[in-house]
Structures are given as structure tokens and as C-alpha cells.
Write a structure and sequence with these properties.
mainly alpha
């Protein structure tokens, strides 16, 4: 069993590590701005991946319901724990917000989707895509509100999700599935080409950002 576990870890984490290491090395030796690449990933690659996955996902409505219930219950539980710890330790408002953000939200897109795809294949990605869509909605509503509650109202935070193309990609995929719309093969191939670039680009960005965070901490210590 141990050998099987180690083999799985090797088969999953080695492919994931290479783009991360590549991003870290390039950022270290060639100072690059990852913001344009992140914009490309957020506004083109991620929507294409979500659309392609959802439109062909082998997932039932029962599984979608289970995922929604799990996401909501998990969020409420972690929220309650964060609030309880904040009150017990008498944390300032800013620190309570930081604790809540850290407890509730995960990096399930940039790192999570590639990990699920390699570990569990397309079937796992089909189910994980529903969770990712829910997390995108929650992060861009509650997440925005918690991070800047003095500047944003709940309504403004909720409206922010309509600025994200991934939401429209998910809605369009659901409409196409419900209406049994079949896209032209050439269009499917184009979408597949774009979505295929997501994993490598997202992991590259992750590696580069890790170096940026470490460099920022080093600079602060030197001051």
C-alpha cells in the first residue's frame, strides 16, 4: 500500500512541480510581471476550461446538489470557527477579517484543478469543476466583502461576480447542455486548445508568485 501511495504521489506531484519550478526559476533570474499572464488565465484560459469541462461533464444533478450542500455547510462551519476564535482571542476587526479569509477560501483553481486532473482524471475534474464555480462565486462575493467591508457593500460584492467570464462560461455550458446544443467540431477544437493551456500557465504563475512573496519578505527583513 505504501508503494502504491508513493507511486501515486510521484505520478501526480512531479508533473505539477515542473511548471511551478519553471515559473519560480524564470521569476528569479528574469524579473517578469505576472499580472498580464494572470489576466490571460483568468479571462480566457479558465473560462475555456470550465466551459469545456461542464459541457461534457459526466455528472448528475444529485452530485451537483451534494456539492452545493457540502460547499455551503463547509463554509458555514469554517466561518463559525473563525468567528469563535476571533472573539475568544479578542482580535481586532482587521485581523478577524484576515482570519476569516484564510479559513474560508482555498486556492482550488490554480493548483486544485491540475491536481484533481492528474490524480483522478477527467471524471474527477468534472465533479471538481462544480466546486470551483461555487468557490469563484463565494470568493467574489463574501471574499470581496470580508476583505474590504468598509469600502464595499454586500450588493457591490455580489455584483462583482458578473465581471468574471468564468461565470458566463458556466452559464453558457449549462444552457447548451440543457438545450442539447452541439457545437461545431472546429469550435470545440479551438476551445480545447485554449483550455489545454490553462494547467501549465496557472502552475507557472503559482511558481512565479511564490518567488515574489519570498522576495517581498526578504526585502522587509532587510529594512
Amino acid at each position: 500500500m505504501l508503494q502504491t501511495f508513493l507511486t501515486t504521489v510521484y505520478q501526480v506531484f512531479l508533473p505539477i512541480s515542473l511548471p511551478v519550478i519553471g515559473g519560480a526559476l524564470i521569476k528569479h533570474f528574469k524579473p517578469i510581471d505576472t499580472k498580464p499572464i494572470s489576466t490571460l488565465s483568468l479571462y480566457l484560459l479558465s473560462p475555456a476550461l470550465i466551459f469545456e469541462t461542464l459541457i461534457g461533464a459526466d455528472i448528475s444533478y444529485g452530485e451537483i446538489t451534494d456539492t452545493v450542500l457540502f460547499t455551503v455547510l463547509n463554509m458555514l462551519l469554517l466561518w463559525g470557527i473563525a468567528v469563535g476564535i476571533g472573539k475568544a482571542w479578542s482580535l481586532p476587526a482587521a485581523e478577524r477579517s484576515g482570519l476569516t479569509l484564510t479559513a474560508l477560501f482555498t486556492n482550488c483553481v490554480n493548483y486544485g484543478l491540475p491536481l484533481v486532473l492528474l490524480a483522478f482524471g477527467q471524471a474527477g475534474l468534472d465533479k471538481a469543476s462544480v466546486y470551483v464555480i461555487l468557490q469563484i462565486i463565494i470568493v467574489n462575493t463574501l471574499g470581496v466583502y470580508f476583505a474590504a467591508r468598509s469600502q464595499f457593500s454586500v450588493k457591490q460584492a455580489a455584483l462583482s461576480i458578473f465581471k468574471l467570464p468564468s461565470i458566463y462560461a458556466a452559464v453558457l455550458a449549462v444552457i447548451c447542455r440543457t438545450a442539447h446544443v452541439e457545437l461545431p467540431q472546429e469550435l470545440n477544437q479551438g476551445i480545447s486548445m485554449i483550455s489545454g493551456a490553462y494547467t501549465s500557465v496557472a502552475l507557472f504563475i503559482l511558481g512565479a508568485q511564490m518567488v515574489s512573496v519570498r522576495s517581498g519578505k526578504t526585502a522587509l527583513r532587510q529594512r
